[in-house]
Design a protein that fits this description.
alpha+beta, 6 strands, 29% helix, 12% strand, RNase_T2-like, RNase_T2-like_sf, RNA binding, ribonuclease T2 activity, RNase_T2_His_AS_1
Length: 196
């Protein structure tokens, strides 16, 4: 997969994916009449580029071929997941969705600042981490266990942290994820937490 650098040494946002209570997968494409409109989020573009960039060169936002780079990614996140988030009281449309996620990231979901650094966990290309170190940090801060996703790099002998997933309630407080909502962690002990 081709990746692009974000220009940041910190974790970035991938998305906010609504689910229903119980064992359902992420809700997707809930309302096709809510098409992505880049103009609605123009005032958020600087923040979005910094905290919610597209790190992968892929996109599947077919209704807007004129978009490029991160715009495709935002389009996908809105049409696939944001349209489902509109069931939450605080999110009444596209602008609210992106603004809410940015505010969550700024005030509580910036894992680098609010969890990891406080527990001595910093990005490194030379220092491998144990899964328990990450889990213990999240349990200490929010009493939740994160799902850690890793990818194999190079010849497959090095695991690199790809994402950290946690669950929120509809009032955006942390809650423990049910086993059936999120996949299992894919990181083994000795994984690396690279700078983004």
């Amino acid at each position: 997969m081709n990746c692009t650098a974000s220009g940041s040494l910190n974790l970035t946002i991938h998305g906010l994916w609504p689910t229903r209570n119980g064992c359902s997968h992420y809700l997707q494409y809930c309302n096709s009449s809510y098409e992505f409109n880049l103009e609605e989020i123009k005032s958020l573009t600087t923040q979005l580029e910094k905290f919610w960039p597209s790190l992968h060169k892929y996109a599947n936002c077919t209704s807007h071929e004129h978009l490029s780079g991160s715009e495709y990614f935002w389009c996908h996140e809105w049409e696939a997941h944001g349209t489902c988030a509109c069931e939450v009281k605080h999110i009444q449309g596209e602008f609210d969705f992106f603004q809410t996620v940015l505010e969550l990231f700024e005030h509580q979901m910036n894992y680098d600042q609010y969890v990891l650094a406080k527990h001595g966990i910093v990005p490194s290309t030379t220092h491998p981490y144990r899964v328990e170190k990450f889990v213990d940090a999240f349990v200490a801060e929010w009493n939740v266990k994160p799902v850690l996703k890793c990818r194999r790099m190079g010849d497959g002998d090095r695991q690199v942290l790809d994402s950290i997933r946690t669950c929120l309630s509809k009032d955006f407080t942390h809650r423990q994820c049910t086993d059936c909502i999120l996949d299992e962690s894919t990181c083994d002990n000795g994984f690396y937490y690279y700078p983004a």
